[in-house]
Amino acid sequence: DDITEIQASVKRALQSCCQQLRVHLTKKHAEKDLRERRSRLVKYVPDVSRSLFGLLNQMKVRREKEDDGSDDEGGVSPTNKRLRVDGRSAADVLRKLDSKEITELTIKKNLMAAIEAQGAKEDEEAVSPSKRRKGISAEPQPIFLVHLPSLESSSNDIQHPLFTFRPIRPIPNGMPLF
């Protein structure tokens, strides 16, 4: 009798330990993936910022050549088959580029800030996976019951000894209620 109880107890203890180990390893792998993702993103920030700044400078050169009316395409790719952006937003970006509001350093800082913000968001989500699993949101949502004065007709009411339910839209005939 005692042997079967001991076996069952040991089996439950081992299963519990395995479950805890699985949860622990899953969390560690998720944390490692987040760190690796962040490091991969950070690794490419200088190249991306340099490329974006180069593209903006090419836009500036192209705009200056278009404004001058020169037909010399030396080094500037043709624009006739390209998707054009809104002229105001492009002019705004070029103005910021001329006034040195946009530099390679500012692009780099903004990219790093975006990576940090994404990392903070992912860290916050990683802290509360149990709440998401159970369907509980991080912030409680208020529930409002609003009186609808336009529903004065009681022809569609569903009567019960404890309450009366008045639907917003009439229930079609022949549709089962429950």
In words, what does this structure look like?
This protein is mainly α. It has one domain. Helices cover 61% and strands 2% of the residues. The protein has a two-stranded antiparallel sheet. A hairpin with a 4-residue loop joins β1 and β2. α1 runs antiparallel to α3. The protein is flat. InterPro entries: Ribsml_uS5_D2-typ_fold_subgr.
Characteristics:
single chain; 178 residues; mainly alpha; two-stranded antiparallel ribbon; 2% strand; Ribsml_uS5_D2-typ_fold_subgr
**Average pLDDT value?**
77
Shape: flat
The residue fraction in helices comes out at: 55-70%
Uncertain parts: none
- Using only C-alpha atoms, the radius of gyration works out to 32 Å
Number of helices: 4
How many β-strand stretches?
2
Q: What is the total number of structural domains? A: 1
The strand order across the widest sheet is 1-2
The run of helices and strands is: HHHHEE
| Beta-strand content bin | under 5%
What structural class results from the helix and strand content?
mainly alpha
Region (Disordered): 63-84, 118-139
InterPro entries: Ribsml_uS5_D2-typ_fold_subgr (IPR014721)
